[in-house]
Design a protein that fits this description.
The chain has 200 residues and is mostly helical. Strands 1-2 form a two-stranded antiparallel sheet. Helices cover 71% and strands 3% of the residues.
Length: 200
Amino acid sequence: MDEKIKKEDLELVKDFKNGSEEAFNQLISRYASKMFQTAYGLIGSREDAEEVVQDAFVRIYKHLDQFRGDSSFSTWVYRIVVNLSRNKYQWNRRRGSDLTFSISGDYRDDDDGRKEDFNLPDTKLGPLRILEEADEQKRIIQIMDSLPDKLREVLLLRHIKELSYEEIASLLDCNLGTVKSRIARAREAMIELMKKEKAA
């Protein structure tokens, strides 16, 4: 992140701690859109993502005086959103909600150059083809949803949010090697599950 933005964030946090409500509003307006995108990418429901962001606003407001600046403000905010999204996702899963994800059409393995295409619906296609593509998307969603939470999460952060390995490590509070390992395992698991399903 731009050092200038980091500095501005810290100044706004300081102003808020000194009683400026406007400083809080500026911080929220700066990150609200990205907070929503993160929540939506992890949960797959616009309504639930909006709820998570609202909960995050409240939590940030209540605990901003505890922010010490050990990490950037944006990382602190996204960590709150990720944790709340995890909780919401688990709650939805326990209730058996119909979860959906916005999945990027391109799958790339940055380390060895392999590529796997996930074919998703194209609204320019005819009705029959759209139904076929929708079935494919549903299949991918179900496979992704069957992954262990830690693998599903890093896959979404990497390929939906397009975060760097370093950003994911910071968000999830784990080391870089762990992130790379989880992403590799998630990719391999997805490919194997898709192959098994095709062979069945």
